[in-house]
């Protein structure tokens, strides 16, 4: 049995109870050492076989899983944040399907949620934006034409950029060309929820400069949009004049 587990965004106590239990039961753990907090490995048994996938290929990861399956062992594949976001789990799951192995997935706190917590912000403010676009600037991994930053920026929604902190010169130009005003609020969140977490507030036009000045080149999220501003409408859900399934208006 193989369990894909989301490690959470960094803080060692942000893994789910289920994730921690699976880690404590595993015979073999393969963790993404470049981003998973190694403190999480405290959950592992003393005799657990631990591999850091940072320098491994997909084939090498699969070879470790093959060996564990042949010995009827339990493997945890520990991914940073939530495995469904830039986690490269599909290719692993497809390979496991082909081999007929049983596997499951335990979600985790994605870093974009960790970043909102660091910012003490709400991404979906009434009257501001009801949409969060999760995307990335194009680097070595191509981004489909219809998802170019310039095109996505046209929505003016809340946007969160993963994997982009070293590409900000071009990214900010694209964001502005697409429609964000240069003074749209933005923030760079470095190592959200880690002890060394840092929040740098700026505007769309000063993203690259802010990253440069603060030496941020990786492990950061870029957030953009009016949700970082000061105005919004109050929610209808908690408005005394609004009835819904759980409450009559007038209370
Ligand atoms: N599955 C992960 C994302 C993996 S891609 C998740 O759900 O969070 C790796 C990218 O995620 C990094 O380049 C960075 O942009 C972002 N990232 C991961 N952890 C982060 C953290 N604690 N703070 C800020 N950004 C983070």
Fold blueprint:
Elements lengths: L1 E5 L10 H9 L2 E4 L17 E4 L5 H13 L4 E5 L10 H10 L3 E4 L4 H9 L12 E5 L12 H5 L4 E5 L5 H11 L6 E6 L7 E6 L3 H7 L6 E5 L27
Parallel strand pairs: 1-4, 1-5, 2-3, 2-4, 6-7
Antiparallel strand pairs: 7-10, 8-9, 8-10
Helix pairs in contact: 6-7
Bound molecules: S-adenosyl-L-homocysteine.
S-adenosyl-L-homocysteine binds next to α4 and β10.
Please describe what this structure looks like.
The protein has 251 residues and is α/β, with parallel strands linked by helices. The protein folds into two domains: 105 residues, Tetrapyrrole methylase, N-terminal domain (Cobalt-precorrin-4 Transmethylase, domain 1), CATH 3.40.1010; 118 residues, Methyltransferase, Cobalt-precorrin-4 Transmethylase, Domain 2 (2-Layer Sandwich), CATH 3.30.950. It is built from seven helices and ten strands. The strands form two sheets. Strands 3-2-4-1-5 form a five-stranded parallel beta sheet, sandwiched between helices. Strand 8 and strand 9 form a beta hairpin. The N and C termini lie far apart (52 Å). The site of S-adenosyl-L-homocysteine has 25 residues, from helix 4 and strand 10.
- Number of beta-strand segments: 10
- Count of domains: 2
User: pLDDT below 50 for ≥5 consecutive residues: which ranges?
Assistant: none
The CATH superfamily of the largest domain is known as Tetrapyrrole methylase, C-terminal domain
List keywords for this structure.
single chain; 251 residues; alpha/beta; Cobalt-precorrin-4 Transmethylase, domain 1; Methyltransferase, Cobalt-precorrin-4 Transmethylase, Domain 2; 5-stranded parallel sheet; 5-stranded mixed sheet; binds S-adenosyl-L-homocysteine
